[in-house]
Each structure stands twice: as C-alpha cells, then as structure tokens.
Task: structure prediction
Amino acid sequence: MGEGRIKELKDRDFALSRSKYCIFCGGSTPADSAEHYPPKAVFTERRFPEGYVFPACQQCNAGTRHQDKVIAFLSRMEPSDDPKLSDELAKLFNSLANERPKDIRQLFSLSGVEKKKAAEKIQYKIPAGTLYRDLPIVKVPDWIDETVNIFIQKLTKALHFHHTGLTFPATGLIESRWYTNANHLAGQIPEQLFNIPTETPILVRAKVDLSNQFNYRYGISEDSTFAMYSVFFRYAFCFTSILVFDPSIWNNGKTTTHGSAPESR
Ligand SMILES: [Zn+2]
Result:
C-alpha cells in the first residue's frame, strides 16, 4: 500500500472516530468519508493543518468539489512574489477556465477605465510603467458570492464541530459577511474584526506554521449553541460568521446600524 493511501485511510479512521454521522447536513446521515476542511487545495502544496478532518456523507463531501476549487483559487489572490503561490494559482486558473470558461472570463471582464475607478476608490498607487488594464483587480460576480457563502456555511460548521464536538442542526442558522483585500484597502473591514479578544488556535502541519495561509478567531457561548468565527485566508479574503443553533433567539432582533436596543411597543 502506498504512503498516500495509508494516510487517506488514517484520515478516514480519524474522521469517523469523531462522529459516525455527517456533520455538514444536520447529523442524521451516516458518514462514510473524511472531508478536509478548509479543503486541502487551499494550502500551499496541499499541506493542511493537522486535525482539520471531518466525518462527511458522500453527498456533502463531493457536493462542493467545484466550490472548493474556486475557494482555493480565491485564497491565492494576493499580491505575492512567492513562485509556488503563483504556480498553484496559474494551475487552478487553467483548470477552472477549462471547466467554466464563461464564469472565469466574467471575473476578468473589467475594462481599463473600470479598473482605474476601482483603483482610485481603494487609493491604490499604480506602479510606474503599469497600465490600468493590467492591474490585478477582478470583478466579484454573483456566482462568486454564492460560492463563498456555501463555503462559509460549510467551514463554520466544521470549525464549530472542531471546537465543541457538536453537530450543527439542520434547523440552525449561520449568518455571515465576507470581505476581499480590496475592501481592506478601501478601509471597509471593521477594525474590530481584527481585535476581538477571542481564542486563536495554533495551525500547524509537521511543525510548519500555516497561519499566514489560514487563521481564525472565535468565541463560543457557554452552552456551545452560539458562536462567532472570524476567518482569514492569506491576504486575499476574510469572513465573519455567526452560528446559532436556535434561530428564534436571533430572529427576534431588529437589524440596526446603531447598536441600539430594538424599540418596545
Ligand atoms: Zn452530509
């Protein structure tokens, strides 16, 4: 048996020892495989953090394969001189362009004028001798938004299980917001998101620190049914999600921009 196959079986045993049921679809479907989350492809040379392997059913495991590849691509969209990163980015790009050429073209559909506008908005200083149309600014079409949201739901469930051992119920609610590095440059990410005094896990693989690729902060209520996760992928994108087992405690509130208590009647 090859080393890869042994590792695969080990991961499967570990995942199934954590729960007999899939943790992604409510906890009543028997699990039959190991799902690495965040997906292995997100990490440079597929070196994923130790322990982030979860029990999944076939449908949940295979059902997000395409989304996972898009996320692996997005998570590498950062300014970097690392040849490994650009090499992996190019490979993912080619593979996605083959699978969904139209969608990928949409990402790069901004004209020079549109890029100039976007660059000005984020006060990006264009390097001398660079043309606006050559700037690495991409459009975020609706399908990317949907893809990222599916990913956030799945990763939030995985992280919550990782830290509490509890499976997110099918009746629960996960709300989220995500930001790109363009949002960061434009000062649109709330500063607090980086400063919340929450738990920060140590992410390693064979003693290699992976936190520059993936890191997060989290806070969990005492009964483990309410939690907040802030997750960062390289200098590419980040998200915050709130997980609630019982949505009725959440939906009674009103959305407010001032943080005031809902008015009583
Ligand atoms: Zn499932």
The pocket of zinc ion is lined by residues 22, 24-25, 29, 56-57, 59-60 (CB under 6 Å). The chain has a mean pLDDT of 87. The beta strands are 33-36, 53-56, 173-180, 204-205, 208-209, 214-220, 226-233, 237-244.
